[in-house]
């Protein structure tokens, strides 16, 4: 998320020459700069922890409530399976349950990591590492929450309004696009300088690999949810139909 750090990493990857460092100036002011840098870094960690903690707790609360307020409601108590969800056994419902559970688990783990990053008794390096872990877990929980919303909406509306259900699923994907638009725009801006340095063929190959890697990193929760739901759907035992009684002759 830091543009200057990303520019430096791309320059190093492209084999750019490094500038001349004023070693005497750095040695003279190294102690003061290091202390001030650590103070500024911990202030950034503190601010980021507070803002992320609100989101992680909110997602955990929403997904915890969705686990008991299932879409479609529950069967009546006088039913054979009274108290169970009415849509249980459908592919979309199974995928929704897995996505909602993954969002709850990741948001809860992010909250635990944020508690560690906000603790002053921990080493500064440990606090920064926990903050990075929490940020990634939050990204996964947001992706899973969007998938859960789309799956629940599709499962409920598809039997009666299939086009509306498809439209809501497509609109839900805008959240994922907005979540990664800054990273995508920065990567697009880096393509032209890399082409001038290393050629179009090399840059095109690296860009394709980078895009595929980012897609897999961002969308692996959805891939896992659909894979597990498919395995569960095909491995479910199909109960034989009840044969009508033979009439007496």
SSE order and pairing:
Blueprint: H1 3-13, H2 23-66, H3 91-117, H4 124-157, H5 162-179, H6 181-198, H7 200-235
Key terms for this structure?
249 residues, single chain, mainly alpha, flat
Would you kindly provide a brief summary of this structure?
By secondary structure, the protein is an all-alpha fold. It has 7 helices and no strands.
Q: Strand percentage, roughly?
A: under 5%
Coarse structural class = mainly alpha
Span of the ends, CA to CA? 80 Å
Chain-averaged pLDDT: 78
Helix content: over 70%
**For the report, how would you describe the main beta sheet?**
none
Low-confidence stretches: 238-243
Q: Name the overall outline.
A: flat
Detailed description of the structure:
The protein has helices spanning 3-13, 23-66, 91-117, 124-157, 162-179, 181-198, 200-235. The chain has 249 residues and is mainly α. Helix 2 (23-66) crosses helix 3. It is flat, with a radius of gyration of 25 Å.
């Amino acid at each position: 998320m830091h543009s200057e750090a990303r520019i430096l990493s791309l320059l190093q990857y492209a084999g750019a020459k490094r500038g001349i460092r004023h070693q005497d100036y750095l040695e003279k002011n190294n102690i003061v700069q290091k202390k001030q840098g650590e103070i500024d870094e911990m202030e950034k960690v503190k601010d980021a922890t507070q803002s992320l903690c609100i989101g992680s707790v909110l997602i955990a609360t929403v997904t915890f409530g969705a686990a008991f307020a299932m879409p479609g409601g529950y069967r009546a108590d006088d039913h054979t399976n009274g108290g169970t969800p009415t849509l249980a056994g459908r592919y979309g419902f199974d995928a929704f349950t897995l996505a909602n559970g993954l969002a709850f688990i990741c948001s809860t783990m992010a909250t635990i990591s944020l508690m560690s990053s906000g603790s002053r008794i921990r080493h500064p390096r440990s606090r920064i590492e926990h903050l990075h872990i929490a940020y990634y877990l939050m990204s996964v929980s947001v992706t899973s929450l969007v998938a859960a919303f789309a799956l629940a909406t599709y499962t409920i509306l598809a039997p009666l309004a299939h086009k509306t259900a498809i439209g809501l699923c497509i609109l839900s994907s805008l959240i994922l696009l907005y979540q990664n638009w800054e990273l995508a725009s920065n990567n697009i801006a880096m393509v032209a300088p890399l082409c001038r340095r290393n050629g179009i063929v090399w840059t095109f190959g690296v860009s394709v690999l980078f895009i595929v890697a980012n897609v897999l990193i961002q969308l692996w929760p959805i891939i896992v949810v659909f894979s597990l739901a498919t395995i569960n759907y095909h491995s479910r035992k199909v109960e034989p139909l009840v044969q009508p009684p033979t009439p007496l002759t």
